[in-house]
Amino acid sequence: MEEFKEIAEYALSYAQERPLDYAEVRLEMNNRDTVSFLNGKLHIGSLPIELTADAFSRMFGINIRILVDGGMAMSSTNNISKSSIKVAVDNAYKAAKRNAHQRKKPLKMSREKSYETEWSSNFKVNPMDISLEERINFLKEFIAIFEDPFPIQFFHIFVLITEERNTYFINNEGARISGYVPRVAFIPVIIGIISGGKNEQMMKTYASSAGWNDLLSWDLVKEVRKNVATLSDIVTKAKKPPQEELDIILGPEVSGIVSHENCGHPHEADRILGREGAQAGESYLREHELGFKIGNDCVNVYDDPTIEGSYGFYLFDDEGVKSRKRKLIKDGIFNEMLHNRETAAMLNTNSNGAARATSYQREPIIRMANTYFAPGDFSFEEMIEDIKLGIYMKSFTEWNIDDKRLEAKYVGQEAYLIENGELKGLVSKPTLEISSIGLFKSIDAQGDMNSLEWQGAFCGKSEPGQGIPVWTGGPNIRLRNIKLAGGE
Amino acid sequence: MNTSEKVETLNEISTRIKKKIEPICQDWIIKGLIIDENQIRFSENQIDIKKNWKDLKIDLFMSEKRRTLEITLNDLRLSSIDDTINNCEKLLNSAEKNRFYKNLPQGPFDYTDKIKKNIFDEKVGKLNDDAVKYVEKATEACFAEGAKRVAGSFFFGVSSIFLETSEAIRGEYRKSNLNFRIRAFAEDMYATGESLTVSTHLNQGFDPIAAGEEAGRICHQAIGGKKGKPGTYNIIIYPKVTTEIQAPTAALAMNEYIRKMGLSWLAGKKKGDKIANENITIWDDGTKEYGLATRPFDDEGAPSKKTLLVDEGTINRFFTNTSLSKRHEESTGNAGITIPTPTNIVFKPGDCSLEELIEISEKPTLLITSTWYTRYQSYAPPGVFSSLPKDGMFLVKKHSKVLEPVRELRINSDHFHMMKNLLALGKENKQVTTWLNPSNSTVFAPFMLIEDVKMTTGTK
Fold it and tell me: Cβ distance A165 to A28 under 8 Å?
């Protein structure tokens, strides 16, 4: 990367030869290796469904974003010759100027401190340095799980993604920031089927920015073995859930996805201001001001890119703004949005460092990093003890939410009946179909630090799509007086 | 760098790669792409950003003793290419046999010029300021129908594709694409409408003004919508809804690789099995005029084809590449080398107008103009999913033309149910794509009337 920094400086310098409001240049390298086993057979290539495209990829290029008279444009290219970069800058400048004529409200960037610095995640062993043999051997350990006898048939996919992102960001305000994050993710996808066709599909993502050893330290073979056995029990033993009104405890995996979908997304300022209107949608919070009461007083949902080892880790965003923890819902109140410099300027505030891009080909847009329910002080025993009839939804399968982020559906996977304060047998696909407000106003207890857990995920947004690495997390949370949906 | 210089650069890189890989692998494919793509994104009636991508890209496939490797190279620094290829040799040595790989197709093939002509319009590459005018005109049309705010996206661009394989196959073609999507909003932020127009040619079915009008009309009709009642309805879906809830059966479940993996709701099904109502006939058509996914040849050089997938409700063929085709069958021309990819999924139209579909529906009926966020409980049979209506949704008042806007209902079904309960189809196909949809392909589909679909809503 070092030898190409000069090219970035050249691009910026060339852009500044003309009057403009703002210019930034991001030089970026992304390398990704994906190795997988499909039903026990090695596969080195792209994967179907939504797993991953471009399994082995090497990317290097430059992104130039220019703001002129309130109009914005972006050029990107992987041809890093000076002549190509001149064309890219000229194109961006001309298009920005043309867009300025069309806009009634000129775009601005919020005023932010400029940094000259370098940052990286903390890791001991870079996952990209692990040999193919070692990665294959890592995956083969999971295949062996299926040598155990089970009463059902399994289809299984194990995916190991190792990648690195190396960036050099500069702008016309003096920022010079080098960033480096290696990441690793392990994704098991398992379908359990019993004769007659009843089936259950499980997908998990274990992910880290703290290096290969971090992944190895999680004893994932034991974890997956347990999940496979549970999946078998779900298919063969789970009973229909009750239809009466009941209480629900959402386990960390489910509270994590709820924090992401029902809180993180609607708190993105670009949705609130309409910029994602034709893509990922807007937000029900468009109709509300900061200070709006979203949920009960015990509800606190945060997003924090600075968590060491997290999959969504970064110290500076892709607009050069220093990252920090964002308290999105504080004591049940709509407390803070996620901002980039564009939305911050529109609302006369400062960016809180939420601008992220997935490669040199993409513009930085507002993204979550690691979103989670803040722990409360309830042990699991305390949460369950006064529940007469309830469900403990430990994990989920199908889910979705409308584009205003108001109406969500979560179908439980590993879920247990609760009767008179005691955990009973497995129940099949209890379905929570509920509004965001209804959900947050039903929460009356959040589990303590001991129950806080994280899951990796790739969050999709924008157009062209940008699947960004994040963690979702939380402790157990308890919802009162819920009626399950009919579901399947 | 002009186009001929880019071609020259790509040729130099390809030659360099070929020299390095020929000694280390038996079968290889080098696919080069020159991309010049643009996007105008707009919201709140204003242009947010114009983007331009100028990239050269190499997709590389290598096989030695049936060990296979695919790699995407956007990093075209010579030192990086050399490092990557050196690493590929190690990877090939460390890999294991790919049980689904047999060989590459044997040429030579005659790629028809007709297909090439029908996918490239040189005017698209010269749009410049006219592109903004399309956005402005569509916005005006949308306002004229009653919208208060407009957002959308306009992709337009050209690309050149070059392919060479170890079987002495060489081919090249140019392609243009136009993909315009517009969403209308009323003051009531929950009243929205969306439409799109898609083509390869400016004068072949590409009509942003009509898209603007349709989005505005749906949005205006959706004002004042009330929460719908959960229950079982007949639904009439707009063409673009098929990308979410009908086309995945062809584009995803009829992929031979996915079927073999057990990730298809058609796993266990074979040619001759009845999976749908006899109203349904579907092709994968890589030769379709002006189709965004049309191409003269696939990623391993096999000529594109029109393949009958479902014939009056009965499976005819799963789509394949060369390796996944049975001994007596040719490839359907859908490589992806390891995993086949769909081209244009084409439904056979019926003979009804939208008004006639409304008229023949005997049960409470919902008109659904768009859906999103289709998610599966399992890809195994029967493919249980739910999908959320996103823009205007209307309860059809029986024997009247009044459409009552309703909201907050969710489709809960499975793909067998959707295919078997398709009562009737509209008489005209429209080319559609949508944002992050599960079929991940271009679709040519008409309106469809589907019987007895379960709709649910939130309980709190």
Answer: yes
- Identify any residues that bridge with B289 across adjacent strands, giving them in sequence order: none
User: pLDDT digits over A416-428, tens only?
Assistant: 999 999 999 999 9
- Partners of residue B460 in chain A, C-beta under 8 Å: 434-435, 438-439, 442, 482-483
Q: Measured between beta carbons, which residues in chain B are less than 8 angstroms from residue A84?
A: 1, 54
- CATH annotation of B3-221: 3.30.2290.10
Work out the end-to-end distance of chain A between its first and last CA atoms, rounded to an integer number of angstroms. Answer: 52
Domains of chain A, residue spans? 2-237, 246-482
Alpha helices in B179-253 (DSSP H): 208-221, 242-245, 247-251
Q: In sequence order, what are the beta bridge partners of A192?
A: A154, A200
The helix (H) or strand (E) run that includes residue B315 is strand B314-315
pTM of the model: 0.96
* Separation in Å, CA of B402 to nearest CA in chain A: 26
Distances (CA, A) of B377 to A93, A116, A261, B229: 47, 48, 18, 24
Per-residue pLDDT, B150: 98
| Residues, chain A | 488
- The amino acid present at A393, given as its one-letter code, is M
Nearest CA in chain A to B84: A58
* CA A262 – CA A404 distance, rounded (Å): 10
Q: What is the 3-state secondary structure (H, E, C) of A282-340?
A: CCHHHHCCCCCECCCCCCCEEECCCCCCCCCCCCECCCCCECCCEEEEECCEECCCECC
User: Which of A130, A137, A164, A407 is the best substitution to test chain B (most B C-beta atoms within 10 A)?
Assistant: A407
Contact A170, A9 (CB under 8 A): yes
**Mean pLDDT calculated for residue range A263-274:** 98
**Domain map of chain B by residue range?**
3-221, 225-460
- Whose tokens are 């049960």? That residue is B363
Q: Report the alpha-carbon distance of residue A3 to residue A279 in Å, rounded.
A: 38
Question: A166 touching B, CB under 8 A?
Answer: no
pLDDT band at A2; cut points 50, 70, 90: confident
Superfamily of domain A2-237: PmbA/TldD superfamily (3.30.2290.10)
Structure confidence by residue, pLDDT tens digits, A439-478: 999 999 999 999 999 999 999 999 999 999 999 999 999 9
Count CB neighbours of B432 within 10 A. 24
B351 to chain A, closest Cα gap in Å: 32
What is the token pair recorded at B47?
Answer: 């242009």
Contact A338, A352 (CB under 8 A): yes
Pairing relationship of beta strands B46-64 and B448-456 according to DSSP bridges? unpaired
Q: Do A98 and B384 touch (CB under 8 A)?
A: no
**CB < 8 Å to A75, chain B:** 51-54
